[in-house]
Amino acid sequence: MNQNESQDSFIRWQAITISQLTYALNLILGLSVATLAFQVSLLLNKDFCPVSWQKITFPISMLLLLSSVAFGLWCVINRLKDFQITTKIARKRESGATKEELQTLRDFCTKLGKRTWGIFWCQIGTFGTGVFLTIISVGGSVAFKVM
Fold first, then answer.
1. How far apart are CA 144 and CA 72, in angstroms?
2. What proportion of the chain, given as a percentage, has pLDDT over 90?
3. Cα Rg of the chain (Å, integer)
């Protein structure tokens, strides 16, 4: 494999990674909003009556899902900033900017990229925990009604 094929492969897989991250980020964001809407509809339903420990887990799950939405929005904004700086790097490179000037911007892009992944994992963690607590709360409420 020559250098051009190797570079093309890297660029292709980098584009796939960016695309999949976008898809996953949007999916988790959408599911978080949908789960919150489900929870609000439960709260408006007079038949839903959390008891005992569910009175604690249900609001915690709502807070976690709200946090997941906030992390998702923060991640989107962070990625947009990353893309904006990357565009600026390309423009400056074409106009003959110095290596030092470009390196400063590249370092900033690297920092934004690492932050994106950190925020994304926080989004997934808060979403997963929020959904788990929602299931526990709703399942417990249903189980108490059956008894």
1. 34
2. 59
3. 22
